[in-house]
Amino acid sequence: MYRTIFLIFCVCLASCSSNHKNTSEPTVRINFHSEPTSLDPRLVRDLPSMTISRMLFEGLFRASDDGATPALAHSMTISEDLCTYSFELRPSCWSDGSAVTAYDFEYAWKSVLHPHSLSESAQQLFIIVGAKEAKLGKIPTQDIGVQAINQNVLVVRLERPDPYFLERLCHPVACPVPSKLLSKQPNWDHCYNKNFVCNGPFILDKWEHGDHLRVTKNPLYWDKNAVQLHSIFITMVEDEHTELNMYENGELDWAGSPNSSVPPEALPHLKTLLPDELFIQPLAGTYCYKFNTKLPPFNNAKIRQAFSRAIERQPLIDNILQAGQLAACHLIPPCLNIDQGAFCTLTHPRALFEEGLEEMGWTRQTMPTITLIFSRSEKHQKVAQAVQQQWNQIFDIKVNLQSYEWNIFLEKLARGEYQVGGRGWIGEFSDPKSFLEIYLYDNQHELGSGNDTGWEDPLFRTLLERADQTTDKHLRDQLLAEAESRLLSSCAISPIYHSTACYLKKPYLKNVYLSKFCDLDFKTAYLENSNASCMR
């Protein structure tokens, strides 16, 4: 017995003023602090790539304040046991004119779950029957519980009921890819001009690496009447001061989060000068320092604990960040509403450090030299300098600092070529477990995806598995809190602060959607008057 749910997708068309109708090419100008790492939605691993994916691709659902809004899903049927979903696709096409089919979804999802896939977001689909086994190479991908019945119907079988399943389908990793094209052009995602094939509200016009990227309205998009912008012009300027100057000089319509940063020292000035253009909102995110538990000196748990507990977090927020962040003693942010309890220790960090040195047979003079790495951002640099000073003073040692361009920084972490490094993590949907499941497996494991600390723990894994098996929310939250406590006690990571989105937006730019998960969506954005951006 099935119950059928028809998804009524109401699109609110933003109306421009009569003056704006005379603007032939309404263009929004934004900045990325670094280049997207990939145009393939299956391979996104950073915020610029996530943002560009939402411009160029669309899946069954799109992120919204309600969690998930129907996109290519016209209707769906759910089984009584809540484990089988049947999606009927609305008519839509790729930017080359070919039809988007259920087979494109099946191909995309099964390719993500192939043992040789490089996707770091495969765990988003592990809820599907056979997904984890296929990723481990234990069963062929054809046995995964995803099947295109025909061109228009996709059936998905889940291991168990998942109240967050539709939110998972908003992630770029759940988007389709042009399967027929890929069979002829395996490097389809390396086309950096208007011939790149996609299915979202915008199409790629041109990508000049290291300089700019431009997307234009997709004339073949199924909901094209909802898209008011002609184009989005994306510069790639790493220096946040330069970006701020560009905004103040009228060269950008949006600056800062989620794809860059507003210089923290400029915030007092901006709060006075541009109070109606500066926005700060909480995010479901946490900035952490990660310790490489496989390399000395942080292969010693007490030394990791000492360095973590020596960080004074509130002065970093008050004196450096200044954008409403919250000092973090947990990984899961408070906006996800889980009762985590207190996490603290009475042990002084210097005493822990001394014990760790003794366990390893080191002195301050013979212990390995420590280098803290971070992505090239003034905010991250100033935080690192403050933490460096705290560590130097408490432990009477020298800590070196090293910054890297974003993509190189990610590679350093992924390859384990670091001792301690700072990186933020933004949740991808409302399940607090999404913050923890990254640490289920080390990156070297077949199922590893983003855990570059080298830390693994069987009990941690068991707690998350038990959380998956219960339908009692209170018990589930208890198990997740216990798993988080296990992770934090190991000090494989050290939460520093819970993040906020801090950005500048011109008053004439309307209806841009930014969620607490950093879903930045320009689908229904519009420019209010003729003085707004128009590409020269």
Give structural notes.
Helix content is 27%, strand content 21%. α8 (301-309) packs antiparallel against α10 (349-360) and α14 (458-469) runs antiparallel to α15 (473-490). It has two domains: 2-230 and 506-527, Dipeptide-binding Protein, domain 1; 282-500, Roll (Dipeptide-binding Protein, domain 3), CATH 3.10.105.10. Strands 12, 13, 14, 15, 16, 17 and 18 form a seven-stranded mixed sheet that branches. A five-stranded antiparallel sheet has the order 1-5-6-8-7, with helices on one face. Strands 2-11-10-9 form a four-stranded mixed sheet, covered by helices on one side. The chain has 536 residues and is of the alpha+beta class. The termini are far apart. β5 (73-79) and β6 form a beta hairpin.
The global form is: globular
Largest sheet: 7 strands, mixed
Provide the CATH superfamily of the largest domain: Dipeptide-binding Protein, Domain 1
What is the oligomer described by this structure?
Answer: single chain
Assigned CATH architecture of the largest domain: Alpha-Beta Complex
Q: What class do helices, strands and sheet pairing give? A: alpha+beta
* Radius of gyration using CA atoms only: 24 Å
Q: What number of domains?
A: 2
Average pLDDT taken over every residue: 91
Residue windows where pLDDT falls under 50 for at least 5 positions: 1-23
Helix content: 25-40%
CATH class of the largest domain, named Alpha Beta
The total count of helices amounts to 15
CATH structural fold name of the largest domain: Dipeptide-binding Protein, domain 1
**Number of DSSP strands?**
22
